[in-house]
Design brief:
By secondary structure, the protein is of the alpha+beta class. It has one domain (3-106): Hypothetical Protein Aq_1857, Chain: A (Sandwich). Helix content is 19%, strand content 46%. The chain has 2 helices and 9 strands. The chain has helices spanning 6-18, 66-72; strands spanning 3-4, 25-32, 38-45, 52-57, 60-65, 76-82, 85-91, 97-98, 104-106. The strands form 2 sheets. The chain has a 6-stranded mixed beta sheet. Strands 1-6-7 form a 3-stranded mixed beta sheet.
Amino acid sequence: MIQVSDNAKKRAIQLMDEDEKPNCFIRVGVKGGGCSGLMYDLSFDNQINEDDKEIESNGIKVVVDKKSFLYLVGTTLDYSGGLNGKGFVFVNPNAERTCGCGESFSL
């Protein structure tokens, strides 16, 4: 299961409204790269693929491909607007090591 925090929900709705994409959902995934080996991928989408898993959390629809889901089980998607930068943040209990910017991880 992937959880969406209140902050992430508010920001996602705001961005979808700004882009005039009210029927979109959040697509999250994992791909190779980054300084720790794996990188998080986040986008807004409106097409569901055959190998996607659909999740609803905090009133927000999240879609993740089945391969990435294995890396993201238990993850919370948050949004930070603090002094250290702003953006969506993945709080992943499966990550054994993360890079300083938090955009990549390893298991």
